[in-house]
Structure formats: C-alpha cells, structure tokens
Design a protein that fits this description.
The structure holds two protein chains of two kinds.
Chain A lengths: L2 H27 L8 H20 L3 H7 L27 H29 L10 H36 L7 H24 L12 H4 L2 H30 L12 H33 L12 H18 L2 H15 L6 H14 L18 H26 L8 H24 L1 H7 L3 H31 L5 H28 L13 H31 L31 E2 L14 E2 L16 E6 L7 H11 L4 E8 L5 H17 L4 E6 L3 H12 L3 E6 L6 H4 L2 H9 L3 E5 L2 H5 L9 E5 L7 H13 L3 E7 L9 H23 L4 E6 L3 H12 L3 E6 L3 H13 L4 E5 L8
Parallel strand pairs in A: 3-4, 3-6, 4-5, 6-7, 8-9, 8-11, 9-10, 11-12
Antiparallel strand pairs in A: 1-2
Chain B lengths: L2 H4 L3 H21 L9 H34 L17 H29 L7 E8 L2 E6 L4 E3 L1 E5 L4 E7 L4 E5 L4 E5 L5 E5 L5 E7 L11 E7 L1 H20 L1 H9 L4 H11 L25 H10 E2 L2 E2 L5 H14 L1
Parallel strand pairs in B: 1-5, 4-10
Antiparallel strand pairs in B: 1-2, 2-3, 5-8, 6-7, 6-9, 9-10, 11-12
Helix pairs in contact in B: 2-3, 3-4, 5-6, 6-9, 7-9, 8-9
The chains are: A alpha/beta, B alpha+beta.
C-alpha cells in the first residue's frame, strides 16, 4: 500500500477514535445519559473520520503548508499527470486524471446501486417474501436511490466534463486544480458513509428522508445525512470550478457563442448546483440536529413543521433533476451533430432553452407536493410553471430532430445511445406532463406510475447520455477504440431491458399499486415477473459493458486523434492528450459545428513559438495515405481536404502496386498530388513495390505517422479488403488506421473539383488510333492534366438515316477504345462524340468545358480543316496541331 | 428545412406516422389501463388522464416517426464521408414549434384547473369523517357519534369530507377507484372531498413510505346505499352506547378465558397483516409468535400498550381475550 493510503487510513482511524473520545468525554462531563448514544457517535465519527481521510490522502497538504507559512510552489506539478495505473489511486491535480477517477468511482457506485436494484427486483419477482424482509427492503430501495443520485448521476457528469471541458475550451487545466482534487475525494467519503450504514442498520426512509419517519431511523440515517453533506460539498466545489473555468479560461477567440453546447450545459448546471445544493445541505443538517441534538425543527407537536422539510428538500431536489439532465443534453447535442454530420440546429435556441430550464427549474419544486397537504393555493401556480418548463425542453427535442433531418447519419455506438435517449426521454417527458397537472397527479403521485416516469427520465436522460458520452470520448481518454460489436450488444440489451422493466410500471401505477412496497396484490404478479426479467437484462448489459472496457483497454485498436471526425478542440489533440493538453493555446476562429462547409475551421492550432506561427510542413503531423485504385477519386480528395482544414496534418501517399503496372500507379499519384496542390495542399508520395499489407504495415511501423488512412473500393470489389487489409495493417504497424471507402464509378471518373489544367483534344478519324493515345500519354507524363476528347462528326443527311447511325456507332466504339486505353494506364480522360460538324460543335464544347489548351489531332491532313474551326472557336485559348499520319483502321 | 413542405419525404413519413399512431392507439384501447371510476372525482380525473394521453400521443407519434424515418432514410451510405447540408436554423420553424406546443399545454392546464375546481367543490350536506393514520393501520371516526371503526363506511351519492390526520409519521390516504389521494401529516388537518357514485368495497392504500409495514398498511372503504348507511350508523351508535355502559364488562371480558377459534378469526383480520402465516411464520413486519417465552399476561400487556412498531389497542375486550388465547395456543 502506498504512503498516501497508509496515511489516509491512519488519520481516518485517528479521526474516528478522537470522535469517540470527544463524545464520551463531553457526555460524561455534562452528565448526559446514556453515555453511549449511537446517533451522536455516528455523526461526530463520520465527520472526523471523513476529514481525517481527506487530510491523509493529501487534499489539504498544499493549503496547510501555506497556512503554516512554509514556502509553497504554485508551479510544482509533481501531482499532475500519471505515469502508471497505480497513480490513479492517489491525489492528482490533472483534470484528465481527476476525470477518469470520477468516472471509475461513480461507475463503481452505479454497480453498487445496480446490485441493490437487482435485489429489489428479485424480491418483487413474485408476491410475498422472496429474499428480504420489509425492513431490509426499505433499506435497499433507499440505498439504491441514494447511491444512484448522490454519488452516481450527479457527480458522473462532473467526471465527463472534468475530462472534456477544459480541452474543449482550449484550456490547460481547470481553474482550481487543487480544489478539483478535493471535490473528487469528497465522493469516496460520501459513498463510504452511505455503504457503511449497511452495518449500522440501513437508512430506510427513502432518498427523500421525510421526517418524522427519518427521525425514527437508526444510526444509518445519520450516516445518510452526513454522506449527503460530503456529496453536496463535492458538487458545490466542482460547480464553482467549472464556472471559473468557463468564464475565465476560454482560448482566445472562443466567444460564448463559439463554445460547444456542452460548455453551456455545464455552465447552467453549475449555476443550479451552486444555488440549490445549500438547500439540501440545510434540510439534512436540520433533520440531523433534530435527531442528534434534540431540536424541534420537524417535530410537529413541539412547534416543528414537517411540510417545511419537503419544501426545502424539493427546492434542491427538483433543480437536481436538471443537474442530472442538462449535462446529458449537452453530450447528446455534441454526439448528434457529429454523427449526423450537420451543424447543430438552432445553436442559440439550444443555449437559451438550457438557460430557461435552469431559471424555471427553481420555480416548480412544489409539484412534487401536490398531495402533501401544503397550502392548497400553491398547487395551481406550480402547475403553470411546470407546464411552462416543458416548452424549452420541447424546443431541444425538436432541434435534435431537425439536426438529424437530411443529415448523413452514422449509427456508431454513441449515436445509438443518443437515439435511445431521444425515445426513452420522450416517454419520460410526456408522462411528466401528466404529473404536472394537479388532478392527474393526485391520482398518480407515489404510485408505480411515478416510478416509471422517473426511471424513464433518469435512465433516458442520465444513463443513456452518460453512456453516449463514455462511448464518444473513450478513445480520446484512453487512446483505445472500444469493440463496436460489444458496444452494440450493450446498447440493445439495455434499450430493450429498459422498456421491459419500466414500461409496464405505468399500468401498475394507474391500476393502484403504490411505490416503495415490499409486497403487493397478487394480481400484479405476472407483470412484476416480466419487469424482473427486464432488469436482469440490464444487469447482463452492464457486465458486457465492463467486459468491453477491460478487453479494449488491454488489446483494443489504437485510436486516432479524431475517430469520429468531430470538430471541437478535443479532437485536435492526441489520444490521450498531452500533459497540459496544448503545447500552445489554440486560436479559435469559428463555430464548433461547421459541418458541410468546405474548409471551415473551428480553431487554428499553433506550433510552439520557437517554430514560428502556424504549423508548417515540417512540423505538421504526418498522415500516411495508402491507396491505389482509388487515387484521383473525388471521395479521397474530399476527405484529404476536410482533414487538411484542421491545419494539423501533412499527407504522405504510399501506393503499393503489387502485381499491377507501376507506371499506371505513378501517373495516378502524380494526378492526385497535382489536384491537391491545386487546393494548396502540399502532399508527397511514392509508389512502392510489394503487397499492400507488408508495405503499408512496415512503413507505418518505421515512419510512426499519426494515422494511416487506407482508401479502397467497396469491400465486395476490393482486392485489398478481401485480404482484410485495414485490420491487418493496423495490427502490423500498431498505428491507428482508418478506412475510406470510394465507390467504383467515382474512382474511374474525372475528378470533378480539380484545379488541374484541362486539355481538349479535337479529333475525328484519329479517335481510336494508338498514336492518339500515345500522344496523350506523352503529354500527361510531361505535365499532369485532365483530358477531354471531342469528336465532331460531319454526318451526311438525313442524320437519322442508317448511314449516319453507322458512322456514329463506329465513332463511339473508337472513342471507348481510346478512353479505356488511357484510363487503364492512369490518365484521367473523358470523351464525347458530337453530331455537328467542327464549325458548329466546337464553340459549344469549348463553352461547356472551358479548356486551358486545345490540341487538334488529325490524320491525312484533316487536321488543317479541324484546326481552322478550332481556331475560330477558341478565342484566346492556345491551339496546337498534331498530325498523326496514317488514318485509323487503314492498316 | 422548408424542403419538408415540397419534398419527397412527406409521403413515407406520413406512412410511418400512421403505423406508429395505429400501434399507439391499439395499445391504448386494447389494454385496460384504469380501474373503474367509482366517484365523481375519479370520473373527471380519468377523463382528464385520457385527454392528456391523446394530447401527448400526438407528440409521441411525430417525434418517434421522425426518429425512425431519419435513422432509416438519412443513414450515410457505407463509406460516405461527406457532410450533410450546413443548415443552422430556421426562425419560422422554431417559432412554430415553440408556439404550438405552448398553446396545447395551456389548454391542458386550463382543463386541469377546471377539473381541480370541480373536484374540490364543497357540498352543503357533506358527511364529515375523521381519518387517522398510524404505523401501520387506518382508523375512522364519525364526529358527534363516537363511532370508531377500522373500515370506512360511506353512503352512495353524498359528498364525504375526510379530515386526514396522522398520529406518528407521514402516511397517504389513497383509494385508487376514487381518484383521490392525500397525505396524512402530523400536525395538519388535511381535508379531502369524495362523492362516491358506485356501490362496492374498495381498498384504502397507504402510498407514502411510512416504515417497515408500509406495504401492508391497508384497509377498506365500503360504499353503501343511503338507507343501509343510516342503518349502519344507528347500529354503530347503539354499539357505542352499549360499549360505554359495558366498559367495565369489557374489562372483565378481557380477563375472561378467551376462545381460541374466535381468536384465530380476529387475528386473521386485525393482526395477520404484520404477523405472517397467522403468526406462525417469520418474514412479516411483526415477528413469528411461536417458540417465544410468552405468558397470557405479557401478551395482553403488549396488545394493550403496544411495543416497538406495534401500536397498542388494536383489539380490546372479548376480542383481546380471544386473540391472546389464540397466540398462547400457537405458542
């Protein structure tokens, strides 16, 4: 065990012993009877034990050193970053390490809470008692909700945002790294206190802990009240940290309207946390005082007011619902924009609707109390605010749909979760409107309908969005890709399991089954059995998830910097990112979702200053492009252009020829490089003899590029893909390898968007002659260009007659032969047979193709006649005449 | 986005919409969602629930259809690395999808408000009944009659005004068939109004977590004809009068040797909720009553005074003697 953990355990034990001593001494001094009072001891021991642990693990060391007047170095980064996995278990100030610590810790508590849920469902599988009695059942349901809310759903978003947000904003870390570490270490203390209540008699008053029931509880209830304080302190500290980071640490050019939506979501959530969390802290302090100190805040016959507790509690706990949802909305917005390849629809409306939800979220708390016996007049105003808050939520839903509309949707794992979220959260949102209407809620309140509603909201709005975020950023955080097949299994089992488990609960609630009961009317037996099966599916799905994480971490494919082709800043750093994220802070120049706008940039990443300014060719990160058949295709060119817009990469082509003709490959490569040069992209390349997997794999291994791009035809028609080239290159080189698929017709066609010079060849009888092909090839080898062959036919009248048709047919055949001959040696060429004579046809053709040069090719002197017409039509375009000698077909 | 109006997407989208709508309507109509409405309040509330359902079904069908259609039709072909059109928003559309749902929500809220007002309209001839909740039993009192019962008896066609109170922690009085629920809160007199319309016996369910016996905290409400109610009232009043006169006799009866068979019947009704298997099995709220060091006197003391979670005075008089005899017989 490390020094830090030994110190933490020793000081926690010392804290507990000190608490025992203190309590006994004071009780003895004041003559209180009995001397042993479990609640009092639990309170003081929990407090001192927790603080002792935090001291021992090192949360306060820096501040204590400073307070003692000893020298401290604010630039001492010895607790920043990790070099091996063991260091994740000690205090760290690196936001990326803290993010992963948060995720691991909260997922651990999710598993604990999930096991409680499975026990609950097992107990409910049939009427009567199965595995636990009523007391234990109340403990299980309280513990399940408490763990899931206070140490999973609320802080897990802190984990995701901790990792991603500073990078998204272009910052090197959070604003207060040491406070950040303290926020994290509050969590294990909080979760430990909750779980420890298992040994003191579990708290059994539900997570709502309404007095007077909560006042009856055992010492476990005290541990709950204390645990909530630690979790709340963690939330508040993190929220302040996020606010400071978002407000003060954005990269230059990152105006608030250029922030990714996740930054908006985290900002609004943090405001909610800062204003609301003190209320739950207050409510739990007051109940604790009632229990431990004998105050009467919530003791009705001593002047206390139990309804007051509910008001304070829900004044936090309703905003808490949005604390558990808004970050998820942010994650889903990122995922949907990236995987639909479209700008987020209504960015500003999205941002404003989150602000609106945040503000209105404080005005709806009493809709949890329609049947509580509170002031009756308060119900209708709360119904109205509840109705109003549905509107911005609806705006978000519509905007996500509009983002999907006409997008190019890639159903990868993060997107699957996003779609699952839309469907599941939709049902939760709509059943929420039922609960918002007072007379309906009077019937539905505290029934299984509420259980269904809240699980649809929190499963859909929190769990699904968390998994979307995990699948989205896992490659970034770990440098490994998750196994896609297992990811899909995880999603579908969870999605179906969710519906089977929670959908029938609506019916149960409407039919009269109250929530939080260990036993129920036998007529609900079958439906409960089905729900239990659904919950087991959820359990299996979770096991698949963790299995996937473990095997992917051990031997997953290496992740490129930008596996999803996202546009926000975290995708412009390596996976995982360097210690301080950016060598030099990037300059933001545009919005984060500029999909579909060619050459649009979100940010410019500058090289270290000593290299001077923007990354130059020498300092750009190399990408190895492996292609042969697909060179010159529009698909490949477009992909290189869009990647080039990042301003980070240099491109090196590698063309393995195998058994193919080397000269052809060289021509294609020359064309490609020339096209790219036309777009200002300086790429290099070479043709290599040998098989693709060997050549590319070894090149990757020795050159160590940032990424390998393998461009092939569709799998069915690609010789490379028949050998499973992409995966085998990835294995052989150990480099992240991506696959670009190019359609067959695209690979052979003339590249549409190309700055290459276009040479128009005017020929009639020469078409089809080998000499013509030789001339074109020679021209091409001199300077890469595109060619279009025009064959203007002076047809005899009538043009629909059989003689004309025959001439036309023969010309077509000769044209095809020439084009095939040229394409097969790697020259880009197209051709057209025209019905009019040169005098009429050439002006039209020159107008349509706007060639940079005209080449008239003729046999037996016909060139002169063609040249006359060409010169007349050409205007300022240079015309050159080539005489090829013998006519075609005369041999 | 205006492409929607003129585009080729309309027809297939409408077809998917019709299919989703048909499935939604089928599950709504084929499944028996609600218990019978046996009060005026339940009638109005259940109609409101259906109105809410059909209003939200509109949104459900639209959103689900667009998701299905988008995932199906706008899926990027394999290997397509291109982007979608750079559409950033559409002010007109955004105004429409903010306004239309707002209007529908306003209508829903107004309807809800009307139902609430009518459900809580107080009748002049309302019958007042006190409801007492305690861990884990319900009891009912009829003011000015001295009647205390464990079963709520109410007349058909007359408004009942319930004053719900709690003796220990918060409970919640709920009759699903009446569509009415209200928390029993210590220190508060929570008034509920019910106009029963249908004869029958319905469950009273505690719907607020109140401790270990929450799941078994049940009782019954009987809706009887006005004539039968009067008869019951008269008889109960007489019982009370007799009971007062015979208080001493009851004390004597409690000390008389009880009848085991009669005790078993009473035990089943009054104690069986907590003591499983007629007191012979563990696992209920209360303990198994066999194999304990009990004496007749200790059993009677505990029944009278209660202990722990068990309230005192659940049974008294002859019943207590019988129950005590039964407990000793199984012990």
């Amino acid at each position: 065990m490390s020094f830090w953990w030994r110190r933490a355990i020793v000081s926690a034990v010392v804290g507990v012993l000190f608490a025992f001593l203190l309590v006994f001494m004071l009780r003895a001094i004041f003559g209180l009877d009995p001397l042993w009072q479990g609640n009092v001891v639990a309170t003081v021991a929990g407090l001192f034990g927790g603080l002792g642990f935090l001291y021992g693990i090192g949360c306060f060391d820096y501040w204590l050193t400073w307070a003692k007047g000893r020298p401290v170095s604010s630039e001492d980064h010895s607790f920043h970053g990790v070099s091996n996995w063991k260091q994740y278990f000690r205090i760290n100030t690196d936001h990326k390490v803290i993010g992963i610590q948060y995720m691991a810790m909260t997922l651990f508590f999710m598993v604990c809470g999930g096991i409680m849920a499975l026990l609950i469902r097992t107990e409910l599988a049939a009427p009567g008692q199965q595995i636990v009695d009523g007391q234990a059942y109340n403990g299980l349901l309280s513990m399940h909700a408490t763990l899931m809310i206070f140490v999973f759903a609320v802080p897990v978003f802190g984990g995701i945002a901790n990792y991603v947000l500073p990078i998204m904003l272009g910052a090197k870390d959070m604003a207060f790294p040491r406070l950040n570490a303290l926020s994290f270490w509050f969590l294990p203390v909080s979760g430990f206190l909750f779980l420890a209540s298992t040994f003191t008699g579990m708290f059994g008053a539900a997570w709502t802990a309404y007095p007077p029931l909560a006042s009856q509880g055992t010492a476990g209830q005290t541990l709950f009240e204390l645990g909530v304080q630690f979790a709340g302190a963690s939330s508040i500290a993190t929220a302040i940290n996020f606010l400071a980071t978002i407000i003060t640490m954005r990269a230059p050019g990152m105006t608030i309207w250029r922030m990714p939506i996740l930054a908006w979501a985290t900002g609004v959530t943090s405001v909610l946390v800062v204003f609301a969390t003190p209320f739950i802290a207050g409510s739990q302090f007051l109940t604790m005082f009632d229990r431990v100190m004998g105050t009467h805040f919530f003791v009705p016959d001593q002047g206390g007011d139990v309804i007051m507790y509910q008001h304070i509690f829900w004044f936090y706990s309703h905003p808490a619902v949005y604390i558990m949802l808004l970050p998820g909305f942010g994650i889903i917005s990122e995922v949907i924009a990236t995987f639909a390849r479209k700008p987020l629809f209504g960015y500003r409306a999205m941002a404003f609707s989150m602000v609106a939800i945040g503000v209105l979220g404080f005005g709806v708390w009493a809709h949890h109390m329609f049947v509580s016996g509170m002031a009756a007049w308060l119900r209708v105003p709360m119904m109205i605010t509840t109705i109003i808050i549905a509107v911005p939520t609806g705006v978000k839903m519509w905007s996500w749909l509009a983002t999907l509309w006409r997008g190019k949707i890639h159903m990868k794992a993060p997107m699957l979760w996003a779609m699952g979220f839309l469907f599941t959260f939709l049902i939760g949102g709509l059943s929420g409107v039922f609960n918002g209407i007072v007379p309906a809620d009077i019937q539905l309140s505290d029934t299984y309908f509420i259980t269904a509603h809240l699980h649809y909201v929190l499963y859909g709005g929190s769990v699904y969005t968390i998994f979307a975020g995990i699948y989205y950023w896992f490659p970034k955080a770990t440098g490994k890709m998750l196994n896609e097949r297992l990811s899909q299994w995880h999603f579908w089992l969870t999605f179906i399991g969710t519906q089977i488990t929670f959908m029938p609960m609506h019916w149960q609630g409407l039919q009269g089954m109250p929530r939080r009961v260990a036993d129920y009317d036998p007529r609900f037996a079958m439906i409960n059995g089905i729900e239990t099966i659904g919950s087991y599916m959820l359990g299996i799905a979770t096991i698949i998830f963790f299995y996937n994480v473990v095997i992917s971490l051990r031997k997953g494919d290496p992740a490129p910097w930008n596996p999803w082709r996202g546009r926000t800043l975290e995708w412009m750093v390596s996976s995982p990112p360097p210690l301080f994220n950016f060598d030099v802070i990037p300059q933001v120049v545009g919005g984060p979702y500029q999909y579909g706008i060619p050459d649009a940039r979100h940010a410019v990443v500058f090289a270290p200053e000593q290299f001077g300014g923007e990354l130059t060719e020498d300092t750009r990160y190399p990408v190895l492009v492996v292609a042969n058949d697909t060179l010159t295709s529009q698909g490949l060119i477009d992909e290189i252009r869009s990647r080039n817009a990042d301003g980070l990469w240099s491109f090196e082509f590698l063309v393995p020829v195998g058994d193919d003709d080397r000269a052809v490959a060289e021509r294609r490569l020359a064309t490609t490089l020339a096209i790219l040069a036309g777009f200002g992209i300086a790429a290099t390349g070479r043709v290599a003899d040998g098989e693709v997997i060997t050549v590319a794999g070894d090149e990757g291994k020795s050159r160590q590029p940032y990424e390998i791009l393998v461009a092939t035809l569709p799998t069915a028609s690609s010789a490379w893909m028949r050998q499973d080239a992409v995966d085998r290159i990835r294995k052989r080189s150990g480099i992240a390898t991506s696959h670009i698929v190019v359609r067959g017709d695209d690979a052979r066609a003339l590249t549409a968007a190309s700055a290459l010079p276009l040479t128009m060849i005017v020929a009639t009888d020469a078409v089809g002659a080998d000499a013509l092909a030789a001339v074109v090839m020679a021209r091409f080898d001199a300077q890469p260009a595109r060619f279009t062959i025009i064959c203007p036919l002076d047809l005899p009248q009538p043009r629909w007659g059989s003689e004309s048709s025959e001439i036309r047919r023969q010309a077509g055949e000769r044209m095809t032969a020439t084009i095939n001959a040229l394409v097969s040696v790697g020259v880009q060429v197209q051709g057209e047979v025209m019905d009019d004579g040169p005098a009429d046809a050439l002006p039209l053709a020159i107008d349509a193709f706007t060639p940079t040069q005209i080449l008239v090719a003729g046999v037996n002197g016909e060139a002169a006649a063609l040249a006359g017409a060409a010169n007349a039509a050409a205007g300022e375009t240079p015309v050159e005449i080539v005489n090829l000698g013998a006519p075609a077909g005369s041999e | 986005m205006p492409a929607v109006y003129k585009s080729k997407h309309i027809l297939p989208l409408v077809i998917i919409g019709v299919i989703v709508a048909a499935l939604t309507a089928a599950q709504a109509l084929l499944i028996d969602w609600l218990p019978p409405a046996t009060s005026e309040q339940a009638g109005r509330t259940f109609t409101l629930l259906w109105f809410l359902f059909w209003s939200s079904a509109i949104f459900f069908v639209i959103v689900t259809s667009v998701i299905i259609y988008s995932v199906w039709k706008f899926r990027a072909p394999k290997g397509d690395m291109g982007d979608g059109p750079p559409i950033h928003g559409n002010t007109k559309l955004e105004i429409v999808w903010t306004t239309v749902p707002s209007v529908i929500l306003v209508i829903v809220a107004i309807y809800g408000y009307i139902v609430l007002e009518r459900n809580e309209a107080v009748a002049a001839d309302a019958l007042t009944v006190d409801v007492y909740a305690q861990q884990f039993a319900w009891s009912y009192g009829y003011p000015a009659t001295g009647i205390q019962t464990g079963v709520l008896v109410v007349p058909q066609g007359r408004q009942v005004e319930l004053h719900v109170r709690a003796r220990d922690v918060i409970h919640s009085f709920w009759v699903p068939e009446f569509g009415i629920k209200g928390d029993a809160v210590p220190g508060i007199d929570h008034v509920l109004w019910i106009n029963p319309t249908t004869l029958g016996t319905y469950p009273v369910v505690c719907s607020e977590l109140c401790g270990v016996g929450h799941g078994v905290m049940r009782s019954k409400v009987e809706v009887v004809t006005p004539a039968a109610f009067q008869a019951w009232l008269t008889k109960s009043k007489a019982d009370v009068a007799q009971g007062t006169a015979q208080a001493d006799a009851a004390a004597t009866a409690a000390n008389a040797p009880g009848d085991v068979a009669a005790g078993k019947t009473v035990f089943e009704a009054k104690c069986g909720g907590c003591h499983a298997g007629l007191g012979t099995e563990a696992g209920g709220v209360g303990p198994k009553l066999t194999g304990l060091p009990l004496t007749l006197a200790s059993v009677k003391t505990q029944i009278t005074n209660g202990k722990g979670l068990m309230p005192g005075g659940i049974v008294s008089g002859t019943d207590m003697a019988d129950v005590a005899a039964y407990v000793m017989s199984i012990n």
